[in-house]
Amino acid sequence: MSYPRSFLGLLLAGFTLVILPLVGALAYSAWNTERLAGQSRSAVFNASQAARASRSLVERIGTIERLAQQAAVLDDPELIQGYARVHRSFRQLAEEIGQLPLDDTQLGALSRAVRHEQALYDLLTGMPRSRVEAAAISEHVDQLVDASREVLAINNLIVDREVERLRASADEVQRGLILLLLFSTAVALTIALALTRYIARPIVAIDAAIRQLGGADFSRPIAVRGPEDLRYLGRRLDWLRRRLDEFESQKNRFLRHVSHELKTPLTALREGAELLNDQVAGPLVPAQQQVVSIMRDNSVKLQRLIEELLDYQRALHAAASLEVKPVVLDSLVSEATRAHELAAQSKGLRLNIDSQAAMVEADPEKLRSIIDNLVSNAVKFTPPGGTITVKARVQAGEAVIEVMDSGPGVPPEERESIFNLFWRGRKGEGTRIKGSGLGLAIARELVEAHGGHIAVVPEGSGGHFRVTLPRRSARALADAA
Question: Closest Cα to residue 425, out of 414, 416, 436?
């Protein structure tokens, strides 16, 4: 299927195809309107002609009646000549009326009037005439007067018929225009729907390509079919895909190299510290023993930091590629929390779970990691004999997960920075808690990837963290858009 060279040309072509049925309907409507107007003019002309000719014909009949009555009494040649002129005028008018669109009844009335007038004319112009003719003349005159009344009705009949014909034509045109409007609208909508799918196809392909890049999927080539300008945009997106793939590969290589380059000397350093600590090279004085212990502890800490930094990079990559699916909230929260029961028991902590049964849309592994980091943080900060409570519920279309402990809580000045990378809070009297400071940072990244929010709740004593997630994941809503 071929496309125009530009997207604007595609839109113009689609618009032209959509309006063609409407333009055709408009042209047909204009033609019908003009035809109806012509019929109206013809009807008005025929009615006026019929009215004029009928009145003139009745006037001629009145003249003929007067002349015939005079001729029956007076034997005057001039009266006969005058009647002959009126007779010719009568016949001419009758012929004009006969040219009008008359039906059989109207033609019969006109023919009778002409026939009676002709009989009267023949009677008056016949030679020789006698006085007996007066009664015959009166009879013919009476018949002609009766016919004149029928002729006079021709005008009204013609007008009524033309009005009826015009009304029928108007009704026919109206029905035709309504059907044409419905048909042309249906055709235009069908063409519009087909063109919408046709025009939207390259846009959908571009949208899918952007979603692919947003999901950190750089393996599939991007190809967009459509007008030249959109195909060019597809080629640029594919170039961007290749560049991002290169950057991702370079980053992974860099992290592998850094971890290898750091771990190799660090391993040697740890082994040396262990050997010295075990006094393999000879006994150590107390001061030397203290220095070796510091070296050994910090080498272990450095290795753990390197591993956690790599874990954080993997968490960032995972946050960019959520696999959203329906999740049973109470089951997942209980499973993630009970994984810390042994650690809690070792400190004499009581672990309470209050979870509501509900379905949410989320990535189950990422959601489990969020809960795991928050509970692990609570276990770390809660003093022995304390209590940790995990609540989960759904309210106002959102999933709310809360982790509360009876520890020292989060100082007001640390409530914003506690989610920063490598930030470690203080535990009473300014002492910093041991840890990498990555757990809450990873939790925030995963929560925000779901379109949610994580915060420290200031009310109450102890630590209180609240995670709010949309019941339908923001990623799912974007995919459905």
Answer: 414
Query: What residue type is 166 in one-letter code?
Result: L
Pairing of strands 387-395, 350-355: parallel
The Cα–Cα gap between 452 and 401 comes to 11
Structure tokens at 203: 């846009």
d(CA 62, CA 113): 12
d(CA 428, CA 431): 6
pLDDT at residue 481 in the model:
47
Question: CA of 364: how far to CAs of 304, 373, 399, 472, in Å?
Answer: 26, 14, 13, 13
Whether 315 shows a pLDDT value over 80: the answer reads no
pLDDT by residue (tens digit) across 103-162?
Answer: 677 677 778 778 877 877 777 776 555 443 566 767 777 777 777 677 666 666 666 776
